[in-house]
Amino acid sequence: MSLQRKQIHLVILSVLISIILLTACRAADHPPERFNIEWEEKTVVVNDDPLFDSASVDARNIPPGSFGSEYARMTRLSKKEWMIVYTVYRNQGYFQDEKGGTSLEVAISNDNGRSWTALSTISDPGRDLDNGQILKLKNGDLLLACRSVRWQESYRLPVFKSSDKGSTWEKVSEIDRNEGTSGSLGNPDKGLYEPYFQLLDKGDIAVFYANEKHVTETPSFSQTISEKVSKDNGKSWGEERFVAWAPDDPEARPGMSIATPMKNGKIMVAYEVCGTNNCEIYQKTSDDGLKWEPGIGTQVPFQAGGPYVTSLKDGSLILTSNANDVSISIDNGASWELNPVAPWNGTFPQYIWASLYQTGTDEIAAVTSTPREAGGHRVEIRFGRISKLPSPTQ
């Protein structure tokens, strides 16, 4: 081949590469399209603990024997492998049993959430564990955060680590704690709840949680969303910073925060605001997940109590709550549109602590705690299919 022909081939190859890169960039920059989610009729039961006789009610006036399972959160491990953690009650509670209290069970699925196998149980004898969430680190280790409580007496946010894909766990740190004597941390409550991990750009781990410790301080806040950051894979945690708080409304109670990374590089946090705002759902965004504007943010219409927000691969957002509707945003949370059909036929307190996950290109998993006729809840999943809507010009 002559030098001239080689040069022509190189020019053609260069042009083709440029076209491919330009097409890829345009596809990446293409805004998400409007869509609905169509839900399947069949559900997957993850856990349905058997009933047993309760000796009495526990510290929260709950009969342990009919509790079942609640508050499930999923984490993707690989393409079709998922892990889930949820709360179970398998004893009479720490009033009746000094080693009693709620525990966390971890289960795994190898078929994209269609079936589940229990792996392990995490307990803290004499305390109630709840609000579990699992984060997969870059080295393959798993971190699990939760709340560990003796009500109105002791509140801790422990972190556990597993290096064997959830078969065993060891405690590695505490995010925060508040210790007192029996009844001393009540009236008003001074607890810590609902930790939620989020990986940041530089590999640091942020954790967001509800914090009542500042209620007796000046200025006073009935509850805030607080944040701490770990730079050593969860072994230690930095100084507390505020994420959502109401400087002019000390009775407002931002809580139950969930974080998600957005396609535009920002971090969104969604949370309820009880106390003075009827547990309506609000949102906030941060450029780096570290610096947050004062206040309680912007309301998400038609949602209330215990939110969960997820970023989809195309950049759109889906959000649910104890209202059990699903809201969709294709403009980074500037506006929200309700999905025509809810995944579950009911709301709080029958259906509680919902969450949403993208399990496939066009597939969404809706997880919640569903009611049982005999009392308490079970953990179930309903899958849905994303259906694109025609553009307004079509």
TrEMBL record:
<dbReference type="Pfam" id="PF13088">
    <property type="entry name" value="BNR_2"/>
</dbReference>
<feature type="domain" description="Sialidase">
    <location>
        <begin position="80"/>
        <end position="244"/>
    </location>
</feature>
<dbReference type="InterPro" id="IPR036278">
    <property type="entry name" value="Sialidase_sf"/>
</dbReference>
<protein>
    <submittedName>
        <fullName>Exo-alpha-sialidase</fullName>
    </submittedName>
</protein>
<dbReference type="InterPro" id="IPR011040">
    <property type="entry name" value="Sialidase"/>
</dbReference>
